[in-house]
Amino acid sequence: MDLELSSRKRRFFASWIDGMASIALSKIGLLLFGLTNEEFLKNYMFDSFSLFLYTIFLIVSIIVLDIVIPTYFWNGQTIGKKLLRIRVVTDEGEDVDIKIMTMRSIFLLVSGIKLPVIPEGMTVIHLVDSFMIFRKDRKTLHDHIAKTKVVYC
To answer: How far is CA 105 from CA 43, 50, 127, 135, 137, in A?
Structure first.
């Protein structure tokens, strides 16, 4: 099956929309667990049950938004991809399954865990991942890991 690869610009804006949705959910999570931005930063290095609950909330949010919905409801599309009419397929052009979407989202899942060392390492990985879009095949690191590509629908 010969599908047209999505443009880099469309992928960027879809990712930006998804990021804004994640930030909105993150802020809702802070409110739900009674954490202000200042308290979150102060408790970041220490034990806090609210921080633990917030971390679980973030991980569940990522699982729902980036794995469950694209796999079972929107045919390989996150919120941003749906709005911009692109979708994730396997390298062979087939629909994605739960395993593939989980592999694509592994960086998001790991970065959702609020441990002191992870954010710095994840920043480097996200930068490398982002810049790989400029390759001829327009595939990012998470596309290579999951053996996927993003196409127009």
So the answer is: 26, 25, 15, 20, 20
Distance between CA 52 and CA 86 in Å, rounded?
35
- The tens place of each residue's pLDDT in the chain, 153 residues long, gives 578 988 889 988 998 898 888 888 878 877 776 666 665 556 554 556 767 777 788 888 888 888 899 999 999 999 999 999 999 999 998 999 999 998 888 876 676 555 555 556 666 777 777 788 888 888 888 888 889 999 998
Task: Give the N- to C-terminal CA distance of the chain in Å, as an integer.
Answer: 13
State residue 36 phi and psi, 5-degree precision: -90, 170
CA triple 73-145-82, angle to 5 deg: 30
Residue 152: phi and psi, rounded to 5, are -70, 150
Give the separation between CA 73 and CA 82, rounded to whole angstroms: 11
Concatenated DSSP letters of 116-142: SSHHHHHHHHHHHHHHGGGSTT---HH
Give the single-character DSSP code of 19. Answer: H
Give residue 128's identity as a one-letter amino acid code.
V
Query: Residue 136: what pLDDT?
Result: 86
